[in-house]
Amino acid sequence: MSQQKRLNEYPAITPVLMDYGWFVPPYINGEEHERIKNLVAYIQANLPPDDAAKRAIEDKIHKEFLDVAFSTQVRARYVWLALRTPHISGYSHLYESAVFAYYKREYAAAVCLLLVALEGVLLSINGWRLGQPNKPSFAQLKATIANLTLANINSEMNAVQSAFRDALSAFIDRWIYAHTSSADFSLSVLNRHYVLHGMDAGNFYRPHDFHRLLLGFDLLIDLTAMINGTYRVMVEADCDKYEERRQYYEQLRGGVLQVGPAGDREQELLRQHPNYAPPTMEACVELRINR
Known about the structure:
Structural class: mainly alpha
Number of strands: 0
Largest sheet: none
Mean pLDDT: 93
Shape: globular
Protein backbone atom coordinates (compact mmCIF):
# COMPACT_ATOMS: atom_id res chain seq x y z
CA MET A 1 0.00 0.00 0.00
CA SER A 2 1.28 3.44 -0.92
CA GLN A 3 1.92 6.16 1.62
CA GLN A 4 -0.66 8.32 -0.13
CA LYS A 5 -3.37 5.68 0.23
CA ARG A 6 -2.62 5.32 3.93
CA LEU A 7 -2.83 9.09 4.32
CA ASN A 8 -6.16 9.15 2.52
CA GLU A 9 -7.53 6.57 4.96
CA TYR A 10 -6.06 8.21 8.06
CA PRO A 11 -8.97 10.66 8.63
CA ALA A 12 -11.48 7.80 8.67
CA ILE A 13 -9.45 5.56 10.98
CA THR A 14 -8.27 8.05 13.60
CA PRO A 15 -11.69 9.18 14.95
CA VAL A 16 -12.68 5.59 15.69
CA LEU A 17 -9.45 4.94 17.59
CA MET A 18 -9.69 8.34 19.30
CA ASP A 19 -12.90 7.28 21.06
CA TYR A 20 -10.60 4.98 23.04
CA GLY A 21 -7.79 7.51 23.40
CA TRP A 22 -5.71 6.13 20.52
CA PHE A 23 -4.60 7.18 17.04
CA VAL A 24 -2.41 5.83 14.26
CA PRO A 25 1.18 6.45 15.37
CA PRO A 26 4.10 7.13 13.02
CA TYR A 27 6.04 4.24 11.50
CA ILE A 28 2.99 2.15 10.67
CA ASN A 29 3.73 0.14 7.53
CA GLY A 30 1.37 -1.37 4.99
CA GLU A 31 0.76 -4.67 6.79
CA GLU A 32 0.22 -2.95 10.14
CA HIS A 33 -2.07 -0.41 8.49
CA GLU A 34 -4.23 -3.20 7.08
CA ARG A 35 -4.52 -4.83 10.52
CA ILE A 36 -5.57 -1.51 12.03
CA LYS A 37 -8.15 -1.00 9.26
CA ASN A 38 -9.59 -4.42 10.00
CA LEU A 39 -9.67 -3.64 13.71
CA VAL A 40 -11.48 -0.36 13.06
CA ALA A 41 -14.04 -2.23 10.93
CA TYR A 42 -14.49 -4.71 13.81
CA ILE A 43 -15.02 -1.87 16.30
CA GLN A 44 -17.59 -0.20 14.08
CA ALA A 45 -19.46 -3.50 13.68
CA ASN A 46 -19.30 -4.34 17.40
CA LEU A 47 -20.04 -1.19 19.33
CA PRO A 48 -19.40 -1.90 23.04
CA PRO A 49 -22.55 -2.13 25.19
CA ASP A 50 -20.73 -1.47 28.47
CA ASP A 51 -17.42 -0.46 30.03
CA ALA A 52 -16.11 -4.03 30.10
CA ALA A 53 -16.61 -4.30 26.34
CA LYS A 54 -14.87 -0.94 25.86
CA ARG A 55 -11.87 -2.20 27.80
CA ALA A 56 -11.78 -5.36 25.69
CA ILE A 57 -11.60 -3.24 22.55
CA GLU A 58 -8.95 -1.06 24.14
CA ASP A 59 -6.88 -4.20 24.75
CA LYS A 60 -7.11 -5.06 21.06
CA ILE A 61 -5.94 -1.59 20.04
CA HIS A 62 -3.14 -1.62 22.59
CA LYS A 63 -1.72 -4.90 21.31
CA GLU A 64 -1.43 -3.51 17.79
CA PHE A 65 0.98 -0.77 18.91
CA LEU A 66 3.13 -2.60 21.45
CA ASP A 67 5.98 -3.32 19.04
CA VAL A 68 6.42 0.34 18.09
CA ALA A 69 6.31 1.51 21.71
CA PHE A 70 8.76 -1.12 22.99
CA SER A 71 11.23 -0.98 20.09
CA THR A 72 14.70 0.14 21.17
CA GLN A 73 15.45 1.35 17.64
CA VAL A 74 12.35 3.55 17.61
CA ARG A 75 13.01 4.94 21.10
CA ALA A 76 16.67 5.68 20.28
CA ARG A 77 15.68 7.46 17.08
CA TYR A 78 13.18 9.69 18.86
CA VAL A 79 15.70 10.71 21.52
CA TRP A 80 18.22 11.39 18.73
CA LEU A 81 15.65 13.52 16.89
CA ALA A 82 14.54 15.26 20.10
CA LEU A 83 18.12 16.40 20.73
CA ARG A 84 18.15 18.11 17.31
CA THR A 85 14.73 19.73 17.31
CA PRO A 86 13.78 23.21 18.60
CA HIS A 87 11.25 23.30 21.47
CA ILE A 88 11.71 19.55 22.02
CA SER A 89 15.42 19.71 22.86
CA GLY A 90 14.81 21.90 25.90
CA TYR A 91 12.86 19.05 27.50
CA SER A 92 14.56 16.09 25.85
CA HIS A 93 16.21 15.08 29.15
CA LEU A 94 12.76 14.53 30.63
CA TYR A 95 11.71 12.55 27.58
CA GLU A 96 14.73 10.25 27.79
CA SER A 97 14.29 9.92 31.56
CA ALA A 98 10.77 8.65 30.82
CA VAL A 99 12.22 6.11 28.38
CA PHE A 100 14.60 4.89 31.09
CA ALA A 101 11.72 4.57 33.53
CA TYR A 102 9.57 2.79 30.94
CA TYR A 103 12.12 0.08 30.24
CA LYS A 104 12.47 -0.44 34.01
CA ARG A 105 8.64 -0.76 34.28
CA GLU A 106 8.35 2.37 36.41
CA TYR A 107 5.18 3.47 34.65
CA ALA A 108 3.94 6.09 37.13
CA ALA A 109 7.26 7.95 36.96
CA ALA A 110 7.33 7.68 33.18
CA VAL A 111 3.82 9.14 32.80
CA CYS A 112 4.59 12.09 35.09
CA LEU A 113 7.82 12.87 33.23
CA LEU A 114 6.07 12.91 29.85
CA LEU A 115 3.22 15.10 31.08
CA VAL A 116 5.69 17.67 32.43
CA ALA A 117 7.73 17.52 29.21
CA LEU A 118 4.60 17.94 27.10
CA GLU A 119 3.56 21.08 28.93
CA GLY A 120 7.05 22.51 28.66
CA VAL A 121 7.17 21.91 24.92
CA LEU A 122 3.75 23.52 24.42
CA LEU A 123 4.85 26.60 26.40
CA SER A 124 8.04 26.78 24.33
CA ILE A 125 6.10 26.59 21.06
CA ASN A 126 4.03 29.52 22.34
CA GLY A 127 7.26 31.47 22.84
CA TRP A 128 7.00 31.71 26.61
CA ARG A 129 9.72 31.11 29.20
CA LEU A 130 9.81 31.42 32.97
CA GLY A 131 10.19 35.04 34.06
CA GLN A 132 8.37 36.48 31.05
CA PRO A 133 4.97 38.17 31.29
CA ASN A 134 1.80 37.03 29.61
CA LYS A 135 2.06 33.32 30.20
CA PRO A 136 -0.34 31.55 27.79
CA SER A 137 -3.71 30.74 29.27
CA PHE A 138 -4.66 27.10 29.60
CA ALA A 139 -7.06 27.49 26.67
CA GLN A 140 -4.18 28.80 24.54
CA LEU A 141 -1.94 25.97 25.67
CA LYS A 142 -4.61 23.40 24.85
CA ALA A 143 -5.01 24.84 21.35
CA THR A 144 -1.27 25.02 20.60
CA ILE A 145 -1.08 22.02 18.28
CA ALA A 146 -4.31 22.83 16.45
CA ASN A 147 -2.95 26.33 15.69
CA LEU A 148 0.44 25.22 14.41
CA THR A 149 1.51 26.65 11.06
CA LEU A 150 2.77 23.75 8.97
CA ALA A 151 5.81 23.81 6.74
CA ASN A 152 5.31 23.76 2.97
CA ILE A 153 7.57 20.83 2.01
CA ASN A 154 5.79 18.79 -0.67
CA SER A 155 2.28 17.43 -1.14
CA GLU A 156 2.94 14.14 0.67
CA MET A 157 4.80 15.65 3.63
CA ASN A 158 2.21 18.41 3.89
CA ALA A 159 -0.48 15.74 4.17
CA VAL A 160 1.54 13.89 6.82
CA GLN A 161 1.89 17.06 8.87
CA SER A 162 -1.83 17.75 8.64
CA ALA A 163 -2.72 14.19 9.69
CA PHE A 164 -0.30 14.28 12.62
CA ARG A 165 -1.49 17.71 13.73
CA ASP A 166 -5.15 16.71 13.66
CA ALA A 167 -4.56 13.46 15.56
CA LEU A 168 -2.30 14.99 18.19
CA SER A 169 -4.58 17.98 18.69
CA ALA A 170 -7.60 15.70 19.21
CA PHE A 171 -5.63 13.50 21.64
CA ILE A 172 -4.62 16.50 23.75
CA ASP A 173 -8.04 18.14 23.61
CA ARG A 174 -10.19 15.07 24.25
CA TRP A 175 -7.99 13.14 26.66
CA ILE A 176 -4.83 14.66 28.09
CA TYR A 177 -6.09 18.22 28.66
CA ALA A 178 -9.82 17.52 28.96
CA HIS A 179 -11.54 19.34 31.81
CA THR A 180 -12.19 16.90 34.64
CA SER A 181 -15.84 17.94 34.83
CA SER A 182 -16.43 16.61 31.33
CA ALA A 183 -13.69 13.97 30.97
CA ASP A 184 -14.69 10.34 30.48
CA PHE A 185 -12.85 8.42 33.18
CA SER A 186 -14.72 5.18 32.60
CA LEU A 187 -11.90 3.88 30.41
CA SER A 188 -8.84 5.82 31.52
CA VAL A 189 -7.79 8.45 34.06
CA LEU A 190 -4.76 9.57 32.03
CA ASN A 191 -5.41 13.29 32.29
CA ARG A 192 -3.05 16.17 33.00
CA HIS A 193 -5.20 17.68 35.77
CA TYR A 194 -5.97 14.32 37.38
CA VAL A 195 -2.31 13.28 37.50
CA LEU A 196 -0.32 16.46 38.13
CA HIS A 197 -2.77 17.87 40.67
CA GLY A 198 -3.07 14.58 42.57
CA MET A 199 -6.84 14.66 42.24
CA ASP A 200 -7.14 10.97 43.06
CA ALA A 201 -4.93 7.93 43.54
CA GLY A 202 -6.34 6.07 40.54
CA ASN A 203 -4.36 3.96 38.10
CA PHE A 204 -3.14 6.57 35.60
CA TYR A 205 -0.01 4.48 35.00
CA ARG A 206 -1.39 1.46 33.19
CA PRO A 207 0.91 0.29 30.37
CA HIS A 208 -1.96 1.14 28.01
CA ASP A 209 -1.89 4.76 29.10
CA PHE A 210 1.86 5.17 29.09
CA HIS A 211 2.05 3.67 25.60
CA ARG A 212 -0.48 6.04 24.10
CA LEU A 213 1.17 9.02 25.80
CA LEU A 214 4.53 7.84 24.48
CA LEU A 215 3.16 7.44 20.95
CA GLY A 216 1.58 10.89 21.26
CA PHE A 217 5.06 12.21 21.98
CA ASP A 218 6.26 10.43 18.83
CA LEU A 219 3.73 12.48 16.87
CA LEU A 220 4.82 15.64 18.67
CA ILE A 221 8.52 15.10 17.96
CA ASP A 222 8.01 14.19 14.30
CA LEU A 223 5.59 17.05 13.67
CA THR A 224 7.77 19.65 15.39
CA ALA A 225 10.82 18.37 13.52
CA MET A 226 8.99 18.61 10.17
CA ILE A 227 7.93 22.18 10.85
CA ASN A 228 11.43 23.20 11.96
CA GLY A 229 13.38 21.40 9.24
CA THR A 230 15.12 18.81 11.46
CA TYR A 231 13.00 15.81 10.48
CA ARG A 232 14.83 12.77 9.12
CA VAL A 233 13.37 9.33 8.53
CA MET A 234 16.76 7.71 9.03
CA VAL A 235 19.53 8.59 11.45
CA GLU A 236 22.15 10.31 9.31
CA ALA A 237 24.30 12.40 11.66
CA ASP A 238 25.62 11.94 15.20
CA CYS A 239 25.00 8.24 14.66
CA ASP A 240 26.94 7.42 17.81
CA LYS A 241 24.27 9.15 19.93
CA TYR A 242 21.65 6.90 18.36
CA GLU A 243 23.66 3.70 18.53
CA GLU A 244 24.81 4.03 22.14
CA ARG A 245 21.20 4.51 23.18
CA ARG A 246 19.92 1.60 21.14
CA GLN A 247 22.50 -0.68 22.77
CA TYR A 248 21.80 0.61 26.28
CA TYR A 249 18.03 0.35 25.85
CA GLU A 250 18.46 -3.27 24.74
CA GLN A 251 20.34 -4.02 27.96
CA LEU A 252 17.87 -2.07 30.05
CA ARG A 253 14.71 -3.69 28.74
CA GLY A 254 16.35 -7.10 29.04
CA GLY A 255 16.69 -6.58 32.79
CA VAL A 256 20.34 -7.63 32.89
CA LEU A 257 21.81 -4.44 34.41
CA GLN A 258 22.46 -3.76 38.06
CA VAL A 259 21.08 -0.55 39.55
CA GLY A 260 24.45 1.14 40.13
CA PRO A 261 25.95 0.69 36.64
CA ALA A 262 22.60 1.53 35.03
CA GLY A 263 22.37 4.79 36.96
CA ASP A 264 25.92 5.74 36.01
CA ARG A 265 25.26 5.07 32.32
CA GLU A 266 22.04 7.04 32.35
CA GLN A 267 23.85 10.03 33.84
CA GLU A 268 26.34 9.87 30.99
CA LEU A 269 23.55 9.88 28.40
CA LEU A 270 21.54 12.60 30.14
CA ARG A 271 24.56 14.92 30.15
CA GLN A 272 24.20 15.14 26.36
CA HIS A 273 20.92 17.05 26.77
CA PRO A 274 21.20 20.86 26.75
CA ASN A 275 19.07 21.55 29.84
CA TYR A 276 20.00 18.61 32.01
CA ALA A 277 21.42 19.55 35.42
CA PRO A 278 23.51 16.67 36.85
CA PRO A 279 22.80 15.89 40.52
CA THR A 280 25.23 16.83 43.26
CA MET A 281 25.69 15.47 46.78
CA GLU A 282 23.84 12.24 46.01
CA ALA A 283 23.60 9.98 49.04
CA CYS A 284 24.40 6.92 46.96
CA VAL A 285 27.66 8.58 45.89
CA GLU A 286 28.63 10.45 49.05
CA LEU A 287 28.07 7.54 51.40
CA ARG A 288 29.88 5.13 49.13
CA ILE A 289 32.88 7.49 48.91
CA ASN A 290 32.99 8.00 52.66
CA ARG A 291 33.07 4.30 53.50
